[in-house]
Amino acid sequence: VLAFSSVEADAQFRGKGLSANYGSTDFNDFQDEVVTLCEDRTPNEYFRLTIEGDCRSVVRCDKAGIAGTIRLAKVKCPSGLAFDLERQTCDWKASVNNCDRLSKPRLAKP
Question: Parallel, antiparallel, or unpaired for β 69-76 and 89-92?
């Protein structure tokens, strides 16, 4: 089960781009870096913006509207669950062993 939720960041990080936002949990802080974040990602791949926190929040790249503007769509797992990057789903926190990674491992292309 996935649930949408808002997340707030420290004011010191707001609007300063990817490198300045390390540790921020506010996905709005990363909107300036969306193109970089979404490079080589499939539209259905969820990933983390930070490894800080409780491992519940992830985002995915989403093309919005007719113009196809790329934006980040955020998802937050319900309380007691964490997002498993390898399986791309919420699971019991004790069953998720990849909370220390930002994204699932990439397979080398032949």
Answer: unpaired
Structure token pair of residue 52? 């800080």
- Give residue 110's identity as a one-letter amino acid code: P
Strand locations in the chain (E): 57-64, 69-76, 81-84, 89-92
pLDDT tens string 47-101: 998 888 889 999 998 877 677 778 888 899 999 999 999 999 999 999 999 999 9
- Number of Cα atoms under 13 Å in the Cβ half of residue 46: 21
The first and second tokens of residue 16, run together, are: 């300063």
* Surface-to-core class of residue 36, CB atoms within 10 Å of its CB (0-12 exposed, 13-18 middle, 19+ buried): exposed
Burial of 59 (0-12, 13-18, 19+ CB in 10 A): buried
Residue pointed to by tokens 């300045």: 20
Q: Which pTM does this prediction carry? A: 0.66
Beta bridge partners of 61: 72
Structure tokens, 89: 């789903």
